[in-house]
């Protein structure tokens, strides 16, 4: 259980220093599958909501109202770290309390 406590403390400290990813302007032709980071208006009319996924219909709509870029959020990158003396590479035999990475 001591390992779980250390992992929880580590994750808590890691989350404390994390910040949201900054949005950026993405060209329309590269925007398919991205997530909008701001509402899009045509005049005073809301045409696309923040947080929605950009699909071909949204790209066509943006082009029809004269936009060549859309504000998007970058996709987060995730790294998995495995650590500990009880971890063994896959393919090797386990002994005692060992686990595969």
General description of the model:
The protein is elongated, with a radius of gyration of 22 Å. It is α+β, with helices and mostly antiparallel strands and 101 residues long. The protein has a domain of 52 residues: Molybdopterin biosynthesis moea protein, domain 2 (Alpha-Beta Complex). The strands form three sheets. It has a three-stranded antiparallel sheet, with no helix packed on it. The protein has a two-stranded antiparallel sheet with strand order 3-4. The longest helix is centred in the first third of the chain and has 16 residues. It starts with a helix and ends with a strand.
List keywords for this structure.
two-stranded antiparallel ribbon; 101 residues; alpha+beta; 2 helices; Molybdopterin biosynthesis moea protein, domain 2
Report the helical percentage.
10-25%
Oligomer: single chain
User: Which residues sit in consecutive blocks of at least 5 with pLDDT less than 50?
Assistant: none
Could you give the order of the helices and strands?
A: HEEEEHEEE
Distance between the termini: 19 Å
Report the CATH superfamily of the domain at 29-80.
Molybdopterin biosynthesis moea protein, domain 2
Mean pLDDT figure? 87
Radius of gyration: 22 Å
CATH architectural arrangement of the domain at 29-80: Alpha-Beta Complex
Strand order of the largest sheet: 1-5-2
Major β-sheet profile: 3 strands, antiparallel
Strand content: 15-25%
From the 3D structure, determine the CATH topology of the domain at 29-80.
Molybdopterin biosynthesis moea protein, domain 2
Class of the domain at 29-80, according to the CATH hierarchy?
Alpha Beta
Tally of extended strands?
A: 7
């Amino acid at each position: 259980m001591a390992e779980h406590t250390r992992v929880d403390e580590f994750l808590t400290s890691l989350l404390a220093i994390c910040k949201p990813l900054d949005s950026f302007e993405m060209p329309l032709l590269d925007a398919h599958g991205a997530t909008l980071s701001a509402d899009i208006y045509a005049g005073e009319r809301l045409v696309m909501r923040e947080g929605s996924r950009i699909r071909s219909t949204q790209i066509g709509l943006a082009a029809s109202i004269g936009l060549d870029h859309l504000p998007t959020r970058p996709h987060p990158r995730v790294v998995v770290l495995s650590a500990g003396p009880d971890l063994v590479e896959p393919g090797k035999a386990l002994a005692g309390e060992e686990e595969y990475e």
